[in-house]
Structures are given as C-alpha cells and as structure tokens.
Write a structure and sequence with these properties.
InterPro entries: Septum_form (IPR026004)
Structural class: alpha+beta
Number of domains: 1
Protein name: Septum formation family protein
Order of helices and strands: HEEHEEHHEEE
Distance between the termini: 41 Å
Length: about 170
C-alpha cells in the first residue's frame, strides 16, 4: 500500500460535514505527553482530544495531524471504535456515511454504557446535565487505497462540559 499522505481538503470537508451532523442530529495511539499530535491515519481507540481544536485543524488546506491530549487532562472527545471497511472499490459517500451511522451509533451505546436505541442517532445519549453524541472521521475515495485509508474512526463528544479520564461507561 502507498504510504500515508496528508489528508486533502476533501476529507476535511467530509469531517466538518460530519461535525455538523453531530451538532444537528446527534450525530490507541495513547499519548503520554499533553499536546502530542498523532497522524490522522494512526488514530486509535483511547485517543482523546478537544473537538473544537480538531475542527480547527480539519478546516485547514491539508491535514496530517490531529491535536491529541492525554486523557487524564481535560477533553470533550474520545475515540471509541475504528471500523475498517472491506477492500474493493470505494463504495461511495452515502454507503460510507450509512456504515458510520450504523457502526458508530451502536458502538456509542456500548461504550458509554446504555442499551442501543435508534434515537441515539438523532438525540445522543443523556449523561447527567450533558449529552454525548458521536462523530466520525470518514474515509474518502482519494485515501481509500492507503494504509488505514478505509477506516471509519468513531469518537464520542460530550456537549457542554469537559472530562478527565475516559468517557467509557460515563452514562451508565
């Protein structure tokens, strides 16, 4: 497989569009040093970040690194699942988006400790005075043939507060 390139603006637009979905419809590489950055193709379960910082990076021309923070520091987002789509031709944006909704919604319920309900896709998971939604970084056609270029990276984001530690079991 070719080596990992910087992510083109198309992925940034896809990720920002997904962020809009998170806001509107509910919809590791563990770090030992605060503020380290991980290559976007190497993000893994247990990585933590602040969604605003990630979104500001995703708005740039090319993206190769997402600003990660140690999960013991304040953050509002955590990667909880990475799903690799099957090899073959790129299936199209709508297929990838549908796969992300199905995978990330179901896995969010498991991750935060509640039973799955279809309303999670629209309304998130209540957690005290906050709500936990999922977001996803989606593969795009131009990254499809790169190593880890077929990964859907699901992350939980808690709205209205920051946490220290994991969001795993947070709503149980």
């Amino acid at each position: 497989m070719p080596s990992s390139p910087t992510i083109p603006r198309a992925l940034a637009v896809s990720a920002l569009a997904c962020g809009a979905v998170v806001a509107l419809s509910g919809c590791g590489v563990l770090n030992s040093v605060l503020g380290t950055q991980g290559n976007v193709f190497d993000l893994g379960v247990g990585d933590c970040f602040t969604e605003d910082e990630m979104n500001s990076v995703l708005g740039s021309e090319e993206v190769s690194d997402i600003p990660l923070v140690d999960c013991s520091e304040e953050h509002d987002s955590e990667i909880y699942h990475v799903e690799t789509l099957p090899e073959g031709d790129y299936p199209g944006d709508s297929v990838v988006s549908t796969a992300a909704d199905e995978t990330c919604g179901t896995r969010l319920a498991e991750f935060v400790g509640v039973a799955y309900d279809d309303e999670i896709l629209s309304y998130g998971v209540p957690a005290g005075d906050s709500t936990i939604y999922y977001g996803a970084l989606l593969p795009i056609e131009s990254s499809w043939d790169f190593e880890n270029g077929r990964d859907i990276t699901c992350y939980a984001v808690i709205v209205g507060e920051t946490v220290t530690g994991t969001l795993s079991g947070y709503a149980a």
